[in-house]
Every structure is written in structure tokens, then in C-alpha cells.
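Hi V.,

You were right to ask for the full record rather than a summary. Here it is.
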Amino acid sequence: MQHDVNGLAVALPDAARAADWNEVQRGFLAHAASTAAALERVLAAAPDFALGHAARGLFLLLLARRELLPEAWACLRRARAGVADARAGHHIRALRAALGGRLRAAADILDDALAIWPTDALAMKLVQALRFMAGDRAGMRASLESIAPQWQDHPLRGYLMGCMAFALEEAGDWRRAEALGREGLALAPDDAWGLHAVAHVMDMTGRPGDGIAWLGAQPERWAHCNNFGYHVWWHLALFHLDSGARDAALALYDRRVRPEPTDDFRDIANAASLLMRFEIEGVPTGRRWEELADLAARRIDDGMLVFADLHYLLALLRAGRAAEADALVARIARDAASPGGHEQHEVAALAGLPLARGLKLFRDGAFGAALRQLRAGLARQQALGGSHAQRDLFWRLTVEAALRAGDVTAAAALLAERGLARGSADPYTRRCMARIAARRRALAGVAAA
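Predicted structure:
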């Protein structure tokens, strides 16, 4: 029996395997590309390590790809057949819940584990990941606050602070979020999650210049990352676009956000949402939608995550793939009609279906009808998961639908509502208000004539 970086016992045969297991946990916290290889080394040397198999299954589920489900189920079987202590048992039960489409239940089980073993870094990060995907921002914060007192001397404390910074940002506590994020990076310099939490604060408080300086000055902090690195570059591209540097943003899209045609829902979401923002701002996107649509067309029947589905749909619609887009909307409608205890089916009913219909109507040029559907989806969009910055795409599309429908009153009301969740008016808001003012002047001129 060995002990890991958390000071907790693990059923591993020797110190070398314990060191590999520590690398898995550090890598998961840092979003390191090396994490999967480290886990494979652990399991090759200790094939009966139940906790490792459960972790691998949960890692696979976080990728939200239907074709990975059989291997995730295999991980569950291996974990149940392996050497499992009480802590591993919680991770095994969490994996089973997640496989049944119950992400919040999986997070609850791991929070129960944290009540017993509060220094478990793997469980801490898994809870944040699961609750993030489930749209449970209050749960993210509560989980971290419950264990923070036990992490004062933890060697991985900087990563907990990065997670707390993100949870606080999503809760609107921007000052504390930014301070904790910066402080955590001093302890964990490779914490790309904490780095990006500070970038989120700058986005929400209307500071694209600060965001460009923050991310542009330290790209080495996420050079070690897996696909999450593309997401950090996405944030830098957003800052450039919002500051009016369109060419710089487009160059980042090609060189950093979408340098290769990866089939990862997070990468496709980054690309689709950035391309749609370009279109809203009047920036030509060329044929960039086509490669995204080719990948999205393979995901019509996935149904793993509504947040992903909506970005697949956006790619299909913008590339003119009408039949495949209709098939995806129809599948979301079927999911919405049969919740059956599956959380994502409930999300489809709450927010996914009206947003999907609104995206289609927007593409068809039926902007008034699109506005009504998109507004209905916005009311429950927190359930989609993701961050304020990611879901902001749906706010911008709804405002754009109002503007294109000629409903400046609705556009102004939407901007005001969007602003309530933000710390300051951003350049996008000011550009939209200028469009509204111009439209009102034009209408006043027509009335006077």
C-alpha cells in the first residue's frame, strides 16, 4: 500500500507507480496532454487498481463522445473487479451514475467522498468538471468552500484556488475570483484553468485590453495542455475581436484555435462560436464552416451533451447542410420528449430545443420567430452548462435576431438583461447600442417626413 500526493492510501504496488498516479492527478488538474499516458502506465503495472479504472472511465465520459461509451462501461467493469477501498467505491459509484446520464448525481457521490477525504484532488477536480458540464455553478462553489480549510498545506493547493477562482467568477464575485486566480498561479504556474478563470473575469468586466495583456504575455502557461489549450487561445481571440482587432482574431482562429480539424466537442464549440461572432460583427468567414460541418454531421445521433449539440447544429446550419440540421433538431426534440431520468434530455426540454429551433429560424431569415424561440431558451440556458463566456453566444444571437427583425426595443431590453449578469458594459454592448441609436434616428426621420 502506497500513499499519494494527497496523503491518502492507494492500492499500488510500489513508489514508482504511486509517482505515476501523482502525475495523473497533477496532469488532470493542469489539463496536461501527458495525463492519459501516465494513467496507462499505472494501469499497465497495476491492472487491478480500481480507482485508476474508475478515473479513466470518468475521463472518457467528460469527452462527451458516444463512441467512447463502450470503453467507459468496460472501465466500470474493471473497476468493480479490481482492488477497491471505500474511496475507490465512491468513484466507481460516480462512474455508474454518470454512465446513466446523471452528472449531478455523480458529482454528489464524489462530494460525499470529499466529506470523508477532503484532500482528494482527483475528486475535487472531477466535481468541478461534472458540475460545470451540468450547469451547477452553485454546486461548484459549495463543494470547494466545504473542503478549502483542509487544503491550507496541500501541495496542490494552487489548483484548488484556480478552481475556486472559476467558481467565484461564474457566481459574479469578480474581485475575489481575480485575486484568488492570480494567487493560485503563484503556487501552480501551470494551472491553465486558473489562468483562464482570470481571463473570464476580464471578459465579464469588459476589459478586453487587460485580457490581451494577461494571456498574450504568458502563453507558456498553457503550452503543456491537451485540447484545453485551444480554448485558452479562443479567449485571446475573443478579446481581440471585442477590442476591434478583427484581423488579429481571425489569424488566431486559423493558427491557434483551429489549427487542425480535431473532432472534440470543445474544439468544435470554440470554433463554431468564434465563427458566429465573426459573422455577427460582419467579418467574412470564407469556407471555414465546411470542415466543422463535416465533423458535426457525424454527431447527429450522439446526444451526449446538449451544449455540444447546439454547436454542432450551428456548424451544420451555417454550412448550408439543411437536411442534417433538420435531423439534429428532430433528435433533440425526441430527447426533450422523453426525459426518462436522463439529465441531458431534461436540458433539451428546458433550453436545448427552443435554442435549436431559434438557431434554425435565424438561419432561415425568420428573425422575429427566431427571437421568440431564442428568448425562451435563454431563460433556462444555465442548464446547458459551460461558462458565461461560452453561453454569451446565445445572448448575442438573440440580440442580433431582434436587431435584424427591426425590434430595437427588444434588442435594448436584451442588452440590459445581459448587462445585469456582467460587471461592466463591454465594447460589444456599446456597438449594439450605437446600432440601436442609429435605427431609432432613422425611424424618427421617417416619422417626421
